[in-house]
Protein 1
Amino acid sequence: MGRTNMDTIRVGMIGFGANTRLRHAPGLLACPKVTLEAVCNRSLESSQKAAKEYNIPKIYESWQQLVEDSTIDAICIGTWPYMHCPITLAAFENGKHVLTEARMAMDDNEARQMYAASQQHPELVAQIVPSPLGMRAHKVVQQYLATKIGELREVVVLGTNDAFAQSDTPLHWRQSGPYSGINMLALGIIHEPLVRWITDPIRVLASTQTFTPTRFNNETGQQEPVGTPDSVQVITELPCGARGIYHMSGVVHHGPGPQIHLYGSQGTLKYVMAPDDKLYFGAASDSQMEEVNVSEDLAVSWRVEEEFINAIRGIEQIEFNNFAKGVRYMEFTKAVEQSALTGQTVDLQYSA
């Protein structure tokens, strides 16, 4: 990839929100010979604040200027989804590696553009920040699927909360179509770990409902349309013939948090991913399910930024997540939206 292990990698930060502060900036700085070279946030004031906090030498008022800086090797995109595609395309054109926040893009069309651009620049690393859900027990889930549950028959995906249960709750940016694009509550962040373990669905039938069609936007001071549903139900078909049921909601009191249930011919595996992050298994002959011990040697920890830097240095390949995986989950989300709008089953043919 044009670098040796001894080279300093200079990263430009575009967008410096909560997740960048929590994970990406500290994670990148924890890697040897990595510097945060420049920053461009939503305002000059917020860029200056980030630069001071993290000793970043350069501040840019436009992301285009940062991308064109020839001293920068890689871009970390921490913006809302509406900026992911244009920044990524420009970064590739300027010879820069890309680590972008999820969701990958506003919609499946943008995702395919980003994937195509990454294919045109195979020398550059292209990574999407993965869902943190399901990561700890990732290897154990793979083992149990291969050895203990038998033939997969049914999948249940749950992700409910009461974040939008009250009609006077202000509009969240994730509910804003112009900023967030196609978004189905927690669908993407829970579906993504699921397809780390099983094959992507090939058919969907979906239903959605928005109970509060407009909300007050604190930034604009106006009532604005809600661009995402409050409740999502999806039925899926997998290539192996198994069926899946998804229930996502932002208006459910005391409902189940993020969970994935895998029902097989010989047993059941349930992953309660938040808040407990616990895995349970019960064989067909067991009287009840028991918690699965995730040993230290099998536990997977967050190392996304390290993975990105190592990929740039040619040490490892991207596992969590490459652009091909991102395209597929964007195409799945689009199929859910299309099915909900038409009331018809939608067949999926993935482009990556």
Protein 2
Amino acid sequence: MTPRRSSPSGRPTITDVAALAGVSPGAVSKTFNGTGSISPATGERIREAARKLNWTPSASAVALRRARSQTVGLVLNRQSQSSSLSTTTADLITGLESVFAEHEYSLLLHLFTRDQGEEAALYRRLADSRRVDGVVLTDSTIGDQRYGLMRDLGMPAVLVGTPWGDDPIPHLPTEGDGGLGAVAEHLLGLGHRRIAYIGGPEDRVQAGIRRQAFQGALGAAGITAHPVVATRSYSADESAELTRTVLDATPRPTAIVYGNDIMAIAGMTIAREAGLRVPEDISIVGYDGSSIARWTQPQLATVQRNVVQRGRVAAAILLRQLGETVEGSFDLAHPHLVEGRSTGPAPS
């Protein structure tokens, strides 16, 4: 039987060789580039499959690959030196690494606490030194200058999120309403009409999209979210401070939705300190579906996202820009509400 060939031109591809040999395309690449650890038996099976298909690696592709650093940069802007990585960021890195490692790329992580001007200088140094072949961008901001900078530097890039101003940079868009329509429907169904929203920073594109989605979902039911406040960061400390202010309002909200789970857990603590029961007196909803949400008392209601998969998709988009063959589809599940036990009927 003649092996099926995946190339539209009928010429064999690295994917065909991998399929015939029963290995990944990365294993074929390692065998012919002389990199990585491939057993003699597997290497011979791969070479035999290549001979059967009359396939040879492109000389130009091999030369280009060997001229690369095989490294991708990820610059994370923290609020302070003491800030730790969030569970969401850790999940993103896990997803990125899982795909980069399959293709023998390393991830170079920079934790950044300075202004945008110095961040731009860092990208220029990375490009000039050729330390990275491409970069992963996060935290799109209003007026973001990084997209144009990447083009000026000739640096392949992918943005995890929605770009400011419909920029054509390759990206993973924010997931529709981000599951916040389901949150609004859930709270309205429980009889809540005084619903507060404590979200992310006003200069973050993604935070703005989520805020508008939640307000729009409530507005469709004739309800106005009040108050709607934004943090300077997604920190527990700032969330606690804003929660105190929100709970002092008259009339007091019967439900609060937060920009992430850590903020919601901080808000839950402040509500208890104020003598309120969760969910009898006030309902609390988080965002991101982090593992810690399952262990709160009561269990936190939260919007579950698959951030690991978003990291995998971002890595695949960037690797394809770099000319790599990335197999498989990377479908993204829509965020969904995990109801938990921190929401209940609105108090009378």
